[in-house]
Amino acid sequence: MPMLYQTHARIHLQNIRFNIEGIREAVGPGRKILIAVKANAYGHGAVEVSRMAERIGVDWLGVATVPEGIQLREAGIRLPILKFSPAFPEEMEAALRHDLALTVCDPANIKALDEVAAALNKRVPVHLKVDTGMGRIGVTPEAAPDLAYDIEKHRPHLFLEGVFTHLPVSDELNKMFTQRQLALFRKTVETIESRIGRQILLVHAANSGGVLAHPESWLSMVRPGIMIYGFYPSHETPQTIPLRPGLSFLTRVSFLKKVTAGTSIGYGRTWIAPEDTWIATFPAGYADGFNRLFSNRGRVLIGGRSYPVVGRVCMDQTMCNLGPETNVQVGDEVVLIGTSGDETISVYEWAGVLNTITYEVTCQINVRVPRVYDPY
User: Fold this and answer.
1) Which of 5, 64, 67, 203 is the most buried (most CB within 10 A)?
2) Would you place residue 2 in the very low, low, confident or very high pLDDT band (cuts 50, 70, 90)?
3) Residue 339 has pLDDT above 90, yes or no
4) Pairing relationship of beta strands 32-36 and 60-63 according to DSSP bridges
């Protein structure tokens, strides 16, 4: 079947596999790997990334919402799936029916979950989130042992499978705060294990920054996110594991025209041709994830050359200036993110122009943009 929308994201599954295998080599075979596939695998396609991960021996998947987990189950994926935040009571039954492991961190939520599990006659795994410094969700380290004891001794339909925390500055050059977090977390886990009288099976803290910069955070499972898709979490993070980008964002020239000096281009007439020049239009706009902030300041690649975006980025189309002479033709490939000849536009470049992070760049490639998957 022909591609009915030429703007698409090409997903380099072989690169994502390379990144995962690099993590496996670094952390060793004795630790489990959970990869984050929330937010449609950071825009890369959760189902296909998860299928590949299952086939190459990844141990766990992580999602943000119950529907994300259900989507994976309905696609036939059997790997354990952890929902990273607590479920609301009305979400619990669906989560448990689809065999999702749930995060817990407060007594009322734990009680509600135990009751739902009892009604379903299931004993379900939970992971206790401890807040050691992220300040988002989680039980305090001081209260964690008692809460763990409550799960272990008074919630017969829950199994305390894991304990975890999150590292907000593991990607920064100054390691002091993260080291303090990890020391506190290890002490908390020791106290929990003493309180309940057994070892916790899965103890995890290492996000991408932890994997790259803090080997002491690896514990029994690591939990990488952005690095799976080929990007270091910040410019301060040591590049201890080589990474390859997980996607390219591509479209095609849909229209060409020669304009005379003084011609205005686009909404608001924000760009006026300084000379006679060729303008190319391509069918990608802010509704696709080609950000409106690229108006008169972004660039694209065609045939190995870089061309500036001119005029305002529209919802569905954008224009670029090819100059007074051109060999570009309708149908030529336009690279929004990726490589053409010796030129590359990276996700890092987009993040710099947009004053944001790589995570947001790939997550904002809209669902209407087809994902085309390379073999791995």
Assistant:
1) 203
2) confident
3) yes
4) parallel
Per residue in 196-232, pLDDT tens?
Answer: 999 999 999 999 999 999 999 999 999 999 999 999 9
The encoded tokens of residue 133 equal 């410094």
CATH of domain 247-345: 2.40.37.10
The tokens describing 225, both together, are 């996110």
Q: List, for residues 76-118, the tens digit of each pLDDT value.
A: 999 999 999 999 999 999 999 999 999 999 999 999 999 999 9
pTM (predicted TM-score) = 0.96
CA angle 56, 12, 230 (to 5 degrees): 85
**Which fold is adopted by the domain 13-229?**
TIM Barrel (3.20.20)
- In the chain, domain spans: 13-229, 247-345
Which residues are the active-site residues? 38, 267
Residue 136 marked as a ligand binder: yes
